[in-house]
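Predicting holo structure, NAP bound.
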Amino acid sequence: MRRVLITGASAGIGRATALELANPETSFVLNARSADKLEAVRSKVLNLGSPQVEVVRGSVADREIVEIIGTVMSQLSGELVVINNAGTAAFGAFHEADFEMWSDMLCTNLTSSLSVIHRLLPLMLEAGGGRVINVLSVAAEHVFNGAAVYSASKAGLRQATKCLNAEYRAKGITFTSLLPGAVDTDLWEDGKCPPREQMLTTKAVAEAIAQIVNTLKDRVVEEIILTPPLGIL
Ligand SMILES: NC(=O)c1ccc[n+]([C@@H]2O[C@H](COP(=O)([O-])OP(=O)(O)OC[C@H]3O[C@@H](n4cnc5c(N)ncnc54)[C@H](OP(=O)(O)O)[C@@H]3O)[C@@H](O)[C@H]2O)c1
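Done. Tokens:
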């Protein structure tokens, strides 16, 4: 049996990952802010045979929501898998960016992921193991104009992932960074974007996440860079 937390499960990569991992051996805690979309994902996952699918609606930037996520995860059983996927992106000249906007982006992409890990580590230590997958971006290492804060959030979590691996791997808890290139999702809705037909599909990213989740315990996938056929767009 397995219990999987997915933050940002209402759309895009998170939704596709829930559908990819759904099966009779896997229960879920699904988090995002949009109630209707989350409920729709929950129904689909239940139809695919998952025995228990709990929804925790609210911002992962809210510590009370993270506390509830931890409590609900502790009430399920099975191997613990945490997929930190919730994220926002905004691009443009840094000197013109609104403080609230960019500090919220840092909080959602970086602080909230660490907050989820911090809440769930005691549970994983008690269980004697667990797997954490952080959905980052090629922006964690590649330089894009107008992406200073988004890149900082992803690069910061990438380095934290490496440190956490060093700290907890001997206790059976592993951390993986997944760095996708452009993926065809609503994340691009507000801005100029590369041609959508050249982007990765959410299913391709979800399949990569499923491979990490299903990795045998005799090895650790520390990082995966997954790009579209034409490379970084
Ligand atoms: N699309 C790309 O090209 C691309 C490339 C590399 C990496 N990524 C990363 O992939 C992850 C998923 O992005 P996506 O492309 O699938 O985007 P998306 O379709 O916009 O989905 C983002 C998800 O995150 C949720 N979310 C946003 N803020 C949240 C918050 N404060 N609390 C809880 N949930 C929140 C959204 O749900 P609600 O609005 O309902 O809360 C939604 O479910 C992000 O971390 C993104 O940085 C994306």
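The chain has one domain: 2-226.
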